[in-house]
Amino acid sequence: MTNRDESREPGDAELLELARSGDTRAVNLLVQRHQAVVYRFLLGFLKDEDQAADAAQETFLKALDRLHGFRGDASFRTWLLAIARNEALGSIRARSRRREESLDHTGPLQGRTNPPDEVAVRTESVQRVRTALERLPEKQRLSVSLRLFDGLSFREIGEVIDSSEGAARVNYHYGIGRLREWLHDDR
Amino acid sequence: MTTGDESGILAGDGPGAGEQACAWTRDRIPLRGLQGLSRSELAELEVHLLRCGDCRAEAELVETLQASSPEPPPSILVGVLEARAARNDSHGSDWRRWVIRSAAVLVLALGASVIWSRDGGTDAVWALALETEPPAWYGSDWVVAGQPIPEGLPDEVLRGLLEEIDP
């Protein structure tokens, strides 16, 4: 990395330029900066922590391989999330194929992939919220998650979920409304 | 992060303005906990929350939801770095193999071209072959009584030597 003003956080464009020229520190910073949003986005799709982590890793590897092809029409984050979305759809397809094979050959499916003791470690409240989030329809779940946890603009959410800015806003507010009802009823 | 509306939408007092104010606030409540609002937006939002119970309830819900935010495991960054390092190593050894092979081909080609240009074509190659030591696959006929056959002996002398060894 070149010696610049260390107090200033470098922007994505600056890091991308350095990463393209093979700067490993820039690559690290890009991954560190965006791994949370990519992981949570994938968790919203896949609903499994291990699979979300694996898919996030693949997303970054693919993005870094294609860095020279990124033209900057959208933000780097939106571009990453588009790759993550494809990765998630691929994982879901592979999972359903495995399920079919498993049904064909080994009988009944396991209900949930997370081991029960792992779930038990989480606080009850956090688990309740996550379960409620998982119940939301996909676009509402993704809109709520991207807005609540990562502060994406509605325009950016619209690009990611393939909807308009207005539809993303509506999805978010519907999602919040449902969560309010469900979490209130659970008390 | 979104940028806020700086138009002072919260300043109005009528019911329409109130609904608009609630909509404006609820759009931005998630950004409050993510430090995604400007100072003036945050001030407007906090003032509205003091006045509006419904928006305050939503802010509490959003806080609860944000507290459940799943954090990424460190394995993502580690995995990305390891995979890239492994790939770079593999590319490096591919590159070294390619260089060694290319160098070998180049040396052979240069050697052949030198011989060709010095002695004029295929004759020179044959000459080179004849100048070399007898190859390993020659049979024991080249050796008589453990000694190499002296050069220039006539056939009769050679026959005599063989009879002495094996009458």
Short overview:
The complex is a heterodimer of chains A (187) and B (167). Chain A is mostly helical and 187 residues long. Chain A is built from nine helices and no strands.
For the biggest sheet of chain B, the summary is: 2 strands, antiparallel
β-strand number of chain A: 0
| SSE string of chain B | HHHHHEEH
Quickly give the structural class of chain B: mainly alpha
Helix and strand run of chain A: HHHHHHHHH
| Structural class by helix and strand composition of chain A | mainly alpha
* Radius of gyration of CA atoms of chain B, rounded to a whole number: 46 Å
Shape of chain A: globular
The helix tally of chain B amounts to 6
Low-confidence regions of chain B: 1-16, 125-130, 132-140
CA(first)-CA(last) distance of chain B: 107 Å
- Measured distance between first and last alpha carbons of chain A: 52 Å
Please state the average pLDDT score of chain B. 71
What assembly state would you assign to the polypeptide chains in this entry?
heterodimer
Strand order of the largest sheet of chain B: 1-2
Q: What amount of the residues of chain B lies in strands?
A: under 5%
Estimate the helix proportion of chain A, in percent: over 70%
According to DSSP, the number of beta strands of chain B is 2
Output mean pLDDT of chain A.
86
Radius of gyration of chain A: 19 Å
